[in-house]
Amino acid sequence: MKYGVCLEMVFTKLPMPERIRLAADAGYTNAEIWLTAGKKADELRNAAQKSGVTITNAVIGPPDGGIEGGLTNPKHRDMWLKQAEGTFAFCRAANIPAAIVCTGNNVKGQTRAKTRQSVLDGLKATAELAGKAGITLLLEVLNDKVDHPGYFLTSSDEGGDLCREVDSPRLKLLFDCYHMQLMEGDLTGHIRKNLDVIGHMHAAGHPGRNELWLGETNYPFLLREIEKMGYQNVFALEYMPTIDHAESLRKALAYMCAGN
After folding, report:
1. What is the C-alpha separation between 128 and 170, in angstroms, rounded?
2. What domains, with CATH codes, occur in the chain?
3. Coil, helix or strand at residue 242
4. What is the pTM of this model?
5. Can you tell me the distance from the alpha carbon of 175 to that of 156, in angstroms, rounded to the nearest whole number?
6. How many CB atoms lie within 10 A of CB 75?
7. Are 181 and 212 in contact (CB under 8 A)?
8. How does pLDDT run across 194-240, given as a tens digit for each residue?
């Protein structure tokens, strides 16, 4: 299994290049960032190369769609695509191969059917741009119970269906075990059902979004099952440490590998 860590949630008082180095020191060969604003592509690329780390992905826009638009509102399509193009340009400069797509929130007064169609149309247009840029999109499903009230895409099965409907090699599903434990449970069942389109995974302990071993999910078991299924992409940690961050990351790696 290839493990990664979200740099936005660890070593938070340090600059990104230092976070990359410390993640590598803790045993991780993959890392990721959120929004590209305020970051320097060449600085990230050089720090990653120096530490032997692959920065796997960035994020096109905030989960709720924000002022950048989002996919749920067709009126914001041009704004969204412009934001996507800017993210793709940054990713190419920083040697980042993928970008996370968040659908945005439900639109007041708009039917779910119209919202879903807007998301589908937007994904098709974004995937076309991503293909030209050589970037892979990762469609993320989130929980609307705790972290993202009003978010549109809360079902991994619906996310998988959207990926299949777009039918582009440039669009994959991001399966977040923390979010889906909140929304669905039966993680192995939903992963197995959607393995054909899953391109990336996230994990955190639930409840609390802290260390994996503090929550109700048996991650060593889950990881053994995922490996049996043939998953070969990155399994990334996106959690808030409750102890020294370097120690937490080292313990998380040992915990995930337990029994393998």
Report:
1. 8
2. 2-254 (3.20.20.150)
3. coil
4. 0.96
5. 7
6. 10
7. no
8. 999 999 999 999 999 999 999 999 999 999 999 999 999 999 999 99
